[in-house]
Design a protein that fits this description.
This is HTH-type transcriptional regulator McbR. The chain is mainly alpha-helical. The protein contains nine helices and three strands. It has two domains: 68 residues, Winged helix-like DNA-binding domain superfamily/Winged helix DNA-binding domain (Arc Repressor Mutant, subunit A); 138 residues, Four Helix Bundle (Hemerythrin (Met), subunit A).
Length: 236
């Protein structure tokens, strides 16, 4: 079994605290811990089968144990994390059948969100996404796996959020929560290529033309190309 590790896989720099200080609400700290852990899962900052402890996460976030425990409980319910015992947490490893099921759902829902987003997305957001796309390309060229996943997540989810369909977006984000750590398997082979960037170029062109069908197809193509590689790696 992998040894417990900190959230960011680097030495801790935040001292352990037993109290969060006066005037700080535990529910607010829980929400912050939840969002940080959720973002780490969605962007692949955590690896499949990576082991954490509640105390290590609390130390890194600079909070007491209670907010982290409550955040972890929420993420266990959402199947983003699993608890090995009262103090040790593990990132689940997706089996191929679960991945295939998630992929089928993502194909439908993400294409739908993209189609809804095309006529609604603000012009300044399109320009920001162009910057995100360029940062994604730079991360690929630099061989920076984590930043490649961070920029890719920002690009996709920002488009889906522009659909102004909060229930749809929440479901999509829940699927990214499950699959995010597995995307690390795309490195270095698949993400060493420019296939993902080329799909994003097509998506940007569709966004500028406000073409929902073309944008939906670009999202589908991006999912299809990456999933073919992942499925080969996930096969028993």
């Amino acid at each position: 079994m992998p040894q417990p590790t900190t959230l960011s896989r680097r030495p801790r720099t935040v001292a352990d605290t037993s109290d969060d200080g006066p005037g700080v609400r535990t529910d607010t700290l829980t929400a912050q811990a939840y969002q940080k852990l959720r973002h780490a899962l969605m962007t692949g900052a955590l690896l499949p089968e990576q082991v954490l402890t509640v105390r290590d996460v609390a130390d890194e976030f600079g909070v007491s144990l209670t907010p982290v425990r409550e955040a972890v409980q929420r993420l266990v319910v959402e199947q983003g994390l699993e608890v090995l015992n009262g103090r040790t947490i593990r990132v689940p490893r997706l089996d191929i059948e679960t991945y295939r099921e998630i992929l089928k759902i993502r194909m439908e829902l993400e294409c739908l969100a993209a189609k809804e987003a095309a006529p609604r997305i603000a012009n300044d957001e399109i320009e920001r996404l162009d910057t995100v796309m360029q940062a994604h390309l730079a991360a690929i060229q630099a061989g920076d796996a984590h930043q490649t996943l961070v920029r890719n997540t920002d690009f996709h989810l920002s488009i889906y959020r522009a659909s102004n369909q909060p229930m749809l977006v929440r479901i999509i984000e829940g699927l990214w929560l499950r699959v995010g750590p597995t995307l690390n398997l795309l490195f270095p082979q698949y993400c060493g290529s420019l296939t993902g960037h080329e799909n994003h170029l097509v998506a940007m062109d569709a966004l500028r033309r406000r073409d929902g069908d073309a944008l939906g197809q670009a999202m589908r193509d991006d999912l299809t190309h990456g999933s073919r590689f992942l499925i080969r790696l996930l096969k028993p």
